[in-house]
Amino acid sequence: MADIQLLRTFLAVYRAGTFTRAAAELHVTQPAVSVQIRSLEGQVGKPLFRRAPRGVVPTAAGRELAQAVATHIDALEGALDPSGATVDAVGESVYIGGPEEFLGVRVLPELLPFMSDEGLRVRMYFGVDAPVLDRLAAGELDLAVLTVDARRPGIETMPLYVEYLDLVGTPAWQRRLGTLSEGRAGAAALAHVPIAAYDEDLPLVRIYWQTVFDTPARLRAMFVANSLRASLQFALRDVGITVLPAHTTAEARERGQLVRLLEPGSPPNSRLYLAWRSGALRRPSLARVHERIVRAAREW
What we know:
Blueprint: H1 4-16, H2 19-26, H3 30-44, E1 49-52, E2 55-58, H4 60-80, E3 93-98, H5 100-118, E4 121-126, H6 129-137, E5 143-146, E6 155-169, H7 171-177, H8 184-189, E7 195-197, H9 203-213, E8 223-224, H10 228-236, E9 241-245, H11 246-254, E10 259-260, E11 269-277, H12 284-297
Parallel strand pairs: 3-4, 3-5, 7-8, 7-9
Antiparallel strand pairs: 1-2, 5-11, 6-9, 6-10, 6-11
Helix pairs in contact: 1-2, 1-3, 1-4, 2-3, 5-12
């Protein structure tokens, strides 16, 4: 049976991506980390990492082991240190995944005091739901912001934030389209307008069309990217229109670069969820970060 310290070291390497960073977080030497990983690999009977240009990446066996032990190791460490102490050690890291724009605009500002005053180190991974959720389950992330209420064994979620959606284009597009109406007539007026979408499944566009136009979004997007910022640029360049969360379009609307093409009576929205592994919030620093994000979301 693997020693608890070997598993702790393994998770540190798994999350940090390099032996050197893991050693710094564990306050040991890099050779000591290497020795412990070799010892664990000897017990498992398989290599857990392979060399990469900028560190190491887990093998299939490494991913399986991380998914099996991460929740238990995090819970055990939290139980052994239940003091609720503040983040007081330089090198403490929290790994957060989710939509790039939301993490950058909403979450990062809330964590800056922890980073500047208490030495917290934040690592963010930007991506759509599926890879973010996989990384969370595997122990690569501590927290995740998702657009779906994920239901997986070992994963806990809570509603975090409701973001309202805007159908936007340049003032030139507003002049071309004229006054749009809700209902199927509005959808028909946009049938041949170039549109940018966040994903091939058109999740934001689909929500808007179903809510405002009462019709499925039977469209083929001209441009698709898993980046809201890229869709924003599509609209700003006057190529076409897009549907984006209001916080993403606010600055461009204030400058008059983009306008809402329609002001629906009941604005459509998309709900975001905060997710973490069961037991992970017993870790005091992570519990404080979780609490800070949840509290701030009430004011967004």
